[in-house]
Amino acid sequence: MKLNERSVAHYATCESPPDKTGFLVKKGERNTAYHRRWFILKGNMLFYFEERESRDPIGVIVLEGCTVELCESAEEFAFAIKFDCAKARIYKMAAENQAAMESWVKALSRASFDYMRLVVKELERQLEEIQEAGRGDLVAAAPGGPLVKSKSARRNPLARTRSGASSASSTSSSSSSGGALSAAVFSSQRSVQEETHLPSGPSRENGVAWSKPPAALTNGFGDGPLSCVPWDGYPGSGSGADGSRPPPVPPRRRGASLESPVSPGTVCFSKLHEWYGQEVELLRGEWLQSQ
Amino acid sequence: MRFNEKELVSLSRQPSERAAELGMKGPKKGDVVKKRLVKLVVNFLFYFRIDEEEPIGALLLEQCRVERESGQVFSIAFLDETEKKYMFECDYEEQCGEWIDAIIKASYEFMRKNLIFYRTEIHRLTGQDPLEQYGISDETRFQVNSGLQLTSKETSSM
Question: What's the pTM?
Answer without folding.
Answer: 0.66
